[in-house]
């Protein structure tokens, strides 16, 4: 629970400390302060005129939990809806011209002799792609021709038919600052300890395995990796998979099925959504990071049971992520675990973006909150972000891993992980754990945390609206209007800054954004250059919308946490 605290809600205690009263509707206790929702601060800690943003819920949190989601300005929201409305009208006009052969139709369609068959392409489903996405298609799928480190090289391309096709000019844009890759700890590199170790393993084992783990593809390196992952996570056992997406989509159906209930966060990744749908279990969605919504679903599930028969659910599985890659928010894991224990449910935690990027030792959101890994039933993560490799893992009790080894489609049918990829993970993980004999890994974790706080603070000072947790290396900067999605990406590339822009339907229709991903490989000079260019483009496109007016939790379609900021 986020509590807004001001000096008007301060009560001095006999020992000279201060107890802060909540002003968000929580009833005070007998001492005039908030019962089970309080924080004591020494008199010398902060100036008295400050506004304090603290998240404490019944003592569950051992550290402040700060997340900010500023309200969309009304004028911006109206203009954004108008922009999409105008694009839609012109889209229908262009479709009319295409039907009458006045405008050339570039999209895939059936031939005339196939018109009586069941259509392969749903015309209306492709409306957005034809008339909106194609206008800004050049902002995506840009080919790079170097290592995706702190800087990379981008191949130049042009389009002569309004982004339906592209032609390469033969030119290369050199030294573009990479603000889009998930290279959180900077291990995506072609030199150094990891690259050398992967090269040696390639010479010994080759690149491919050409078999599954159950047949001839179980190498000693795979078992070494799994033992290392289990030790890193602090769990009994772990299992590695060759693809991060398939780790979710192929293993969730092995864990739950008909007669089971899945409670899924509304902003969960597509791999979690697909896995839940393939399982055949009943799916109910709770509002993003909203513990009241989750508890209501849990309570209803226990009280009412399955539909029609009212039999108890065989299993109740809660699906959440550590860091949400579009919002930059961090799961309220202490509260989720408390609810899971209260209602005897199971917890599936996807740490794709948080493993390596959060916690003093890089062990993810569990370590970030100081929790026990045993309280999470299924710990999932990927090697594609912080470790600079590919694949995913699942960690937990030995019984769980033994079961998945024989029942998971991804384990039984998928080809084993490539040996050099396995070695990249092993070497980078040992570096993070300090088992390479240096503090190099720990220094990278600290550098990422410093870069994250610095970059977020500077963007807020410039007047941009950014979303997410202060400690999240995923930083969404709000663009809102559809025309500014492509414009921002193009203008930043002109200034040698590579960014990722995102719009509807990947985000709510009025919440288009640019998403920055910080890396330990970024130097302060790189970040300052990027910030200077972002500010320049922000002035050009008039993107500095922030008024520091944040709205209550229940006033936003995608529920997270909102806080007024009067500092």
Give a short synopsis of this structure.
The protein contains 16 helices and 20 strands. With 567 residues, it is of the alpha/beta class. Helix 3 runs antiparallel to helix 13 (419-433), helix 4 (220-233) runs parallel beside helix 13 and helix 15 (482-494) packs across helix 16.
Can you walk through the features of this model?
The chain has 567 residues and is an alpha/beta fold. Helix content is 33%, strand content 17%. The chain has helices spanning 74-99, 127-131, 193-205, 220-233, 244-249, 252-255, 270-279, 291-304, 333-342, 365-368, 398-407, 409-412, 419-433, 440-462, 482-494, 524-541; strands at residues 2-5, 10-12, 18-20, 40-41, 52-55, 67-68, 151-158, 167-178, 237-241, 261-265, 282-286, 316-321, 346-350, 378-382, 392-396, 468-469, 474-480, 497-498, 500-502, 512-517. The strands form six sheets. The chain has a seven-stranded mixed β-sheet with strand order 9-15-14-13-12-10-11, with helices on both faces. The protein is globular, with a radius of gyration of 25 Å.
Rg for CA atoms: 25 Å
Any idea what the shape is?
A: globular
Largest sheet, strands/sense/barrel: 7 strands, mixed
The stretches of 5 or more residues where confidence is low (pLDDT under 50) are 1-58, 549-567
Query: Strand sequence of the main sheet, in spatial order?
Result: 9-15-14-13-12-10-11
Q: Briefly note the structural class of the backbone.
A: alpha/beta
